[in-house]
């Protein structure tokens, strides 16, 4: 088996200075891709991740952009394209939560979550697609002209009280991804999502950091363990490779069975 199936490809991972994005950036580097580590707020951590990715013999660089801001996204893509000439893989990962009971949810919390989790995916995918369409397929690089992978969530399909803004954004990612897949298919751009379950990262620290919280979280995961960023990184690296060339317009759940209605294992 080819351990560097992405050799020679150039990837951009949004929100790559922590959590799942960091795991994805590292996995793409290990699979042979050069990687842009996008960050919104932690330049020194992003710089350290870049140095570590480079030890696999690939190129890497950190680029700042708040993905909800059009001008910042455009500047980031210009910087990447002028340095490397092309983008082969976009991983739309940047995402955040601003949780509140619905009647207390502020417009700012709503807009912040929709802005990063959904508008950010639009702005980055548009910039990437323009460049992928311009270049077209280069068979020596990949069977596709480009790959766009959205990091969704089990909350694309599992409703989530107290997190209405977040669940609405991920539900939106579902139709965003599929409609885009339909539109970009004639250009040979593959568009898919990976939908993680509970992955141990800063976004959900409260759900795993105490033994009681962890016990109640594990009741929602039939496979009996919390996921790691590396679990998601490996799935993304494979989905971006030509081994997954016929997968298009799909959401793949990587969740230890969280979407299997675990309450029904002993009920119903
Ligand atoms: C959320 C996490 C949560 C997980 C499973 C993710 O999309 O960001 O906070 O633990 O879904 O519920």
Describe this structure in words.
This protein is α/β, with parallel strands linked by helices and 268 residues long. The chain has one domain (10-257): 3-Layer(aba) Sandwich (Rossmann fold). 41% of the residues lie in helices and 14% in strands. The protein has 7 helices and 7 strands; from the N terminus they run βαβαβαβαβαβααβ. The protein has helices at 19-30, 43-54, 70-84, 107-135, 164-184, 211-218, 229-240; strands spanning 10-13, 34-39, 60-64, 89-92, 146-151, 189-196, 251-254. The chain has a 7-stranded parallel beta sheet, with helices on both faces. β2 (34-39), α2 and β3 form a beta-alpha-beta unit. α1 (19-30) runs parallel beside α2 and α1 (19-30) crosses α7. The radius of gyration is 18 Å and the shape is globular. The mean pLDDT is 98. The structure holds beta-D-glucopyranose.
Q: How much β-strand is present in the residues?
A: 5-15%
- Helix content, binned percent: 40-55%
Please give the count of helices: 7
Average pLDDT, to the nearest integer? Answer: 98
Rounded Rg: 18 Å
Features:
single chain, 268 residues, alpha/beta, Rossmann fold, seven-stranded parallel β-sheet, 7 helices, 7 strands, binds beta-D-glucopyranose
Give the secondary structure arrangement, pairings included.
Layout: E1 10-13, H1 19-30, E2 34-39, H2 43-54, E3 60-64, H3 70-84, E4 89-92, H4 107-135, E5 146-151, H5 164-184, E6 189-196, H6 211-218, H7 229-240, E7 251-254
Parallel strand pairs: 1-2, 1-4, 2-3, 4-5, 5-6, 6-7
Helix pairs in contact: 1-2, 1-7, 3-4, 4-5
Bound molecules: beta-D-glucopyranose.
